[in-house]
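Lab notebook, bench 4. Still working through the backlog of constructs that have no structural model yet. Next entry is a single chain of 308 residues. Request: give me the C-alpha cells for it.
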Amino acid sequence: MNPAMLHDKFLAACLGASIGESIGLPAETLDAARIKAVFGRIDGPLARPESEEFHPLPAGSTGRQTEATLAVLKAGHPLPDLGGFAFHIKDAFNRYPNRWPKTAAFPWPPFPDEGHYTFAFALPAAYRLSGKADTVDTLAEWLRSYTTVSIVWQQGTWIYLRLLACLFEHNPHTFDPDLYLKKAMMFVEEADAYFPGDHKIKRRMHTLDGIVHGNLAEVAKTCGGVDSAAENMLAFVGAVFFHHPVDFRAAVTAAANSGGHTGASSYYVGSLVGALCGTGALPAKWSATLLERERVETAVATYLETTS
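Model written out:
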C-alpha cells in the first residue's frame, strides 16, 4: 500500500488509542449505571475524580495503556524486545505513578497474567506486516520467542495485530463489518493454531459471534462487565467496532459509557477506528485536549525514521 497512507494510519492508530484512553479513563472500573450517576454521559474529555482505586487526573490525561504504547515504540528495533520494553515501562511507572492504580506494583515480567494492557506490542508488528517488512510466519515466531508470557497474552496480541494490519489495508468507504467479523474469527482460529494450549479467547469470541448484532449493553454483560480478562476485553472491543467502524466519536463514547475497564476498551476501540480511517477521523478538539499528544507523535515519528 501507499507508504504515506500507511504512516498516516499507523499514527492514527497510536493517537486514536491515546485519545480513546483519555475519554474512557475517568470512568475506569465503574459500571454503566454508576457512570450515568456520576457523569451523566461521557461525550468528551473529562477530569478523573479521585477514588479509593485511582488518583485524580485532569481532562485529556492518559494512563498505563498509552505509557505501554510509548514503551513499545521506544523498544522497537524494529520489533519490541521484552528487556527494552521493561526498561521503558518501569521508567514510566516511576515517573508517572498517578497513571497507574494506587495499589499497582511493577511486575516482572511486565505482563499481567492473561491481561491486556500490553497488547500494544501488536502496533509496530501490524505496521510491518502491512508494509511487507515481515510475514505472518516471522511475526508468529517473534511472539513465540516470549516464553515467559501467557498463552492468552500471545493469542490476544496476535488477534489484535492481525486486525490492525487488516484495517490498515482497508478503505473505510468500502468497509464491510460482516466481512470484518468473519476475518476476526479466522484470526481467532489462527491464534489458537500458532499458540495452542488455552481456549478462553476462542470460546468467548464464538459466544460473541451470536450476539454481536445486538445491544452493546448485553454484549458488555456477556463479557464480564468488560473486566480485565483479555478474552472479555477483545470480544467487547470487537463488538463496539463492529457497530461503529468509521465513527470515532460514536465508537469511543460507546465504550466509555458501557462500564468496566473503560480506559482500556476506549483505547482499543480508538486504535481500530484510527487504523481504518486515518488521522482525518480523529476529532480535532479531542486531539487538542490530549495532554500527551506531542509525546505520542514524537514516538511514532522516531520509530518510523529509525526503522524505515
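Notes after review: The mean pLDDT is 94. Residues 42 and 64 are 20 Å apart (CA to CA). Flag for follow-up if needed.
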